[in-house]
Amino acid sequence: MVSAPRHRGDLTADISEDGLRSDGARTDAAPAENDTAPAGNSAAPAGNDPEPAGNSPEPAEIADLFYALCGRRRDVRGQFTGEPVDDAVLQRILGAAHAAPSVGLSQPWDFVLVRDPGTREAFREHVATERDTFARELSGEDAATFSKIKVEGILESTLSVVVTYDPDRGSPAVLGRHAIADAGLYSVCLAIQNLWLAATAEGLGVGWVSFYREPVLRALLNIPDRVRPVAWLCLGPVTHLERTPDLERHGWRSRLPLEAVVHTERYPDS
Ligand SMILES: Cc1cc2nc3c(=O)[nH]c(=O)nc-3n(C[C@H](O)[C@H](O)[C@H](O)COP(=O)(O)O)c2cc1C
Asked: Among 18, 55, 87, 211, whose Cα sits 20 to 30 Å from the Cα of 181?
């Protein structure tokens, strides 16, 4: 189990010290799917029946693993191997996504699994066009830096998961959304984050692609007009996860220190 004391909250910690092998495979020390708290219905991740308390990791161990997982998660573009994703693993990951909190318990997400090479190629071509559109807005050093950055692994990854938002789910009286329409969209983003962390825990990589126009993706996947495609996620086994985000490695932008974004009592004056 967890051996040495670690700095709780050190998100750069190598999770391999915390029970995940550096090749991404889970070891006995990592939380198994049935270590998660029961959600109480079939929406919960598969196989998450409660275990006798004696077999469960201590809260401090769970916390250490969780913080390490948050640090290990990366957006992946260039490290996909294209190997298959085990069906049971995919179900666990989707179950984790479906266990996310949602405004009014509306669960406004859907997950479209896209494996067809023709569909993925068509999307990749569209993304390439949008990449060019963005590139034309750049000049000088930014243009040179961006030209070296890969923004998708659509064909290299094993499959794509397109996550959508249906504002009609649970409507008209979505509890908690009457004043903030975007709360539905926030819920979908939480499902995506659950998916991302679960995939990372399973040793897989995820890459979010947003270089697309919603009408194009709707037409490609038969998504109704009222439904918003929120993310095209590339998913699959990876050679490794980088320790530093790609954009930082390529000099596009650096992560902010925590102190820069935490404020006390009031938002800072502009
Ligand atoms: C809403 C959203 C959209 C994103 N779109 C893209 C994208 O189109 N292409 C890409 O390569 N990365 C995309 N990313 C990944 C970010 O670039 C990445 O999360 C960020 O650089 C930090 O790196 P990390 O996720 O590895 O920590 C997106 C991330 C989010 C949250």
From this structure: 211
The one-digit pLDDT tens for each residue of the chain (270 residues) are 223 333 333 333 343 433 333 333 333 333 333 333 433 333 344 444 445 556 788 989 999 999 999 999 999 999 999 999 999 999 999 999 999 999 999 999 999 999 999 999 999 999 999 999 999 999 999 999 999 999 999 999 999 999 999 999 999 999 999 999 999 999 999 999 999 999 999 999 999 999 999 999 999 999 999 999 999 999 999 999 999 999 999 999 999 999 999 999 999 999
Q: Does 247 sit in the ligand 1 pocket, CB within 6 Å?
A: yes
Counting ligand 1 atoms within 8 A of each CB, the residue from 75, 80, 190, 255 with the most, and so the one to mutate, is 75
Contact, 75 vs 207, CB < 8 A? yes
Alpha carbon 143 to chain centroid distance?
27
Instruction: Establish whether residue 171 lines the binding site of ligand 1, counting it when its CB lies within 6 angstroms of any ligand atom.
Output: no
Give me the residues paired with residue 201 across strands.
none
CATH 3.30.70.1170 given to domain 75-260: no
Residue ranges, CATH 3.40.109.10, the chain: 75-260
